[in-house]
Amino acid sequence: MDTLYDRSNDPRAVIEADRAHVWHHLIQHKPFETVDPRIIVEGRGLRVWDIKGKEHVDAVSGGVWTVNVGYGRERIANAVRDQIMKMCFFAGASGTIPGALFAERLIEKMPGLSRVYYANSGSEANEKAWKMIRQIAHKHHGGKKYKILYRDRDYHGTTLAALSAGGQQERNAQYGPFAPGFVQVPHCLEYRAGDLAGEGYGERAAAQIEEVILREGPDTIGCLCLEPITAGGGIIVPPKGYWERVQELCRKYDILLHIDEVVCGFGRTGTWFGYQQFGIQPDIVTMAKGVASGYAAISCCVTTESVFEMFKDDTDKLGYFRDISTFGGCTAGPAAALEVLSITEEEDLLGNSARMGDYLSGKLHELMDKHAVIGEVRGMGLFQGAELVADRATREPLEEKKVQAIVVDCMAQGVIIGASNRSMPGFNNTLLFAPALIATPDDLDQVVAAVDAAITKVVGSA
């Protein structure tokens, strides 16, 4: 019988095994009847190689904004190996050394918060937050303050509850009916605001949230859940004044503020967390992806001490947070996360994210001057987007088919970029860039050159 090692060195055998047995994420498999599935076999720094030996610059950190510190970090692999050989797993009712030490170091980066609840994915972390909200409603508000507000275009995960809080209609399609008690508020995309801009639009976008609060009844709303910068919904940086007003509304109506940092967290925007760019103080913060940079599975639901204290009640046998995440007890995640945190500090990756983000933004603006199809460039740090339009004057979105053709052409050139797709009907028209925080000007020049060539090929110049 062939060993795993023998089989792994036979590309055709691996491809056929994948074709026959693997159900891939987010992709239609019908083309695999005649086209080989893509298999990535190695990564170093910002580059990956597929099973056929082709090299790619990865401008989306593992396809889903995860590998923040780059591929091939031996010290992370060694830390994970050493930890799991000593103690691989124990259920989260008990503590572990890496779990305790990472929680301590994480909280140092998050003034005003104090408790870390471990799980293993962003979807699950958000579920934990909403379960906390629902239990608080029952314990402290007679079951009434249970509703969760979420924003159009934001995305919070793949479970049915997360889809219930999903502002992307095409991701939600065919999965209903959804859980009750989730209520949508409008998006805050200034480019699509029409008659207002800047602080004027920020005030109006926040006022639209207040309208929903008053319509639903403030005494029924437990939390407002928002991404600090909308990610897959189009890299939407909220307008000036928006976040300050949102914070005021939460305090005014006694609504907990839950910030979903699954994408923006751990340096993506140039600060440890995206919300720190806006001077706000959340009550709950969820994170995953970049926490361990893809080297192990981990997510965290982080709360203030006041939220935690609401579950300390030994007079009620059901009064504690009765939740478990089996693989929240795996020690590989916090062991890897400790190394990621140290690498981020030692190599000043927050600073590099800010500097290279400015560089990438500048290069994309240069492309915008060259190509009328780019309607707007927006983002923060190494988290940038370029919204494509068929007509700059009317801002008519470029059709999704052409947007995806640009992505495919970049891939053929050896550059992996992202784009909003199969998410928002008629508005899947934004190219997405989120390279690892180690990116250099040379890396980004190669990415932008590929986009330039792809736009010229698919749409034409000017």
Automatic annotation (TrEMBL):
Cofactors named for this entry = pyridoxal 5'-phosphate
* One Pfam family per UniProt: Aminotran_3
Species of provenance = Rubellimicrobium rubrum
Q: Per its UniProt record, what InterPro entries does this chain match?
A: Aminotrans_3, Aminotrans_3_PPA_site, PyrdxlP-dep_Trfase, PyrdxlP-dep_Trfase_major, PyrdxlP-dep_Trfase_small
Q: Could you give a GO molecular-function term held by this entry?
A: pyridoxal phosphate binding
On the tree of life, the source organism's domain of life is: Bacteria
SUPFAM superfamilies the UniProt entry points to = PLP-dependent transferases
Per UniProt, the keywords (alphabetical) are:
Aminotransferase, Pyridoxal phosphate, Transferase
Protein name listed in UniProt? Aminotransferase class III-fold pyridoxal phosphate-dependent enzyme
Q: Which CDD domains match?
A: OAT_like (cd00610)
Q: Which family does it belong to?
A: Belongs to the class-III pyridoxal-phosphate-dependent aminotransferase family.
